[in-house]
Amino acid sequence: MAAAEEHAGAPAGGPLAGVRVVELAGIGPGPFAAMTLADLGGDVVRVDRPGGGSLAVPAEYDVTNRNKRSVVLDLKQRAGVAAALSLVERA
Fold it and tell me: In the chain, at which end, N or C, are there fewer CB atoms within 10 A of the end residue's CB?
């Protein structure tokens, strides 16, 4: 099964189908770029910090989150860093 088909709301195909992207950006052009990659079929996994996503807009209203999955990781803790590195290794 292609990675883009594994999560609901993702495009059924596209030039990036099967490509996993890990988004570690919180604000600025990073979330927009990751949204574009997701729109092109990429399997984008957004890493959020504990206590909230973006600093500017609540996650439920942020259109740049479309077609993405997300995980909350505390990158100030070793376990969070290890989990993030594991995601990156599989991307």
Answer: N
The pair phi, psi for residue 39, each rounded to 5°, is -65, -25
Cα–Cα distance between 59 and 52 in angstroms, integer? 8
Report if pTM > 0.70. yes
User: pLDDT tens digits, the chain, 91 residues: what are they?
Assistant: 344 444 555 556 899 999 999 999 877 899 999 999 999 999 999 999 898 655 666 766 788 889 999 999 999 999 999 999 999 999 8
What CATH topology corresponds to 3-89? Rossmann fold (3.40.50)
